[in-house]
Amino acid sequence: MIGACVRGGRSGDALALFRRMQERGVRPDDVAVISVLSACSDLGALELARWLRRYVERSRIPKSPALCNALIDALAKCGDAGAARAVFDEMPRRTVVSYTAVIDGLAMQGRGREAVGVFEGMVRAGVAPDDVAFIGVLTACSHSGLVEEGLRWFGVMRERFGMEPRMEHYGCVVDMLGRAGQVERAERFARAMPVEANAVVWRSLAAACRVHGRPDVGERISRRLIAEEPARDSHYVMLSNVYAATRRWEEKGRVRRLMGRRGVRKEPGCSAVEIDGEVFEFAAGGGGRDRRRRCGALRWHSEKIAVAFALLRSPRGAALRVAKNLRVCADCHLAIKLVAKAYAREIVLRDRSRFHCFKDGLCSCGDFW
């Protein structure tokens, strides 16, 4: 049942079942632990992931590759790359999945040099990287501005390992160039791809245009995507973000109204925060007056509610950890920077693409994510 809840996207229910299991004195085996670790990964439940690691040690559960990989993945995705690396280092036999889990965790934290080092260690150890491992190292290079390093590994895929890059790999390169501010080079690369670039590739380029002062290109790309896929909410959101970045509020409002007329609904934002071992989940628009009037209001974004709740429920000075299912918006990103400074707190937010560590009014992402 726990596994079914996780697969069905109901990780909160999975943890509730696990607590009931504990209350009834049923000891989890390795299969149950792996399922609960997946729920921890989804919700950012770091303390529970750490507890499960200790439980495995105390109970002397055999550390199969699958269990160790699940521990690495959960600890890394919950923000404890050090513990994930410790589990990895203790493994007698490491698979490509083990290496990839560590690389992905480091990539999400913007620790690209370390991720590349792990990738190089995998190659030296004679473990052949697969296409997923290459996505991990390219993502790490993208999030850390290692453009030439990333391009080198992209070339190595075919030249040394005989692997044909997939759409995801090409997308990583476009994202990497765009994040580095090389917008024109990224667009040329996307147009020269041997396969037609998909919407994900173009959206990453549009995001780069918004950040690096090329709203004209971002608007052109977003409008074309809307024309091609008028039912996809993310295209409208991207265009709306481009307008917001240039303070074109009327155009932003028109995009939202267009979504309403076409019946396009934005994927709801959900955030989770763990306090004293218990996970609390929040949805955008929670609390207050008429939901139809609240929906989409910046003040009701789920990460803001989660941070406010955590400030009220946690000890003074304690670090806060929040996990969100979507990319954090610019307004919430700025708000959390200010909250971290005003309350002298470290606030760690994991969104869809990476970790943001807010401290003293700054963010580890350097305001580009």
From TrEMBL:
PPR repeats lie at residues 1-28, 64-94, 95-129. PROSITE patterns: PPR. The keyword Repeat applies. Residues 298-369 form the DYW domain. Keywords: Repeat, Transit peptide. This is DYW domain-containing protein. One of its GO terms (biological process) is RNA modification. GO terms for molecular function: RNA binding; zinc ion binding. It holds the Pfam family E_motif.
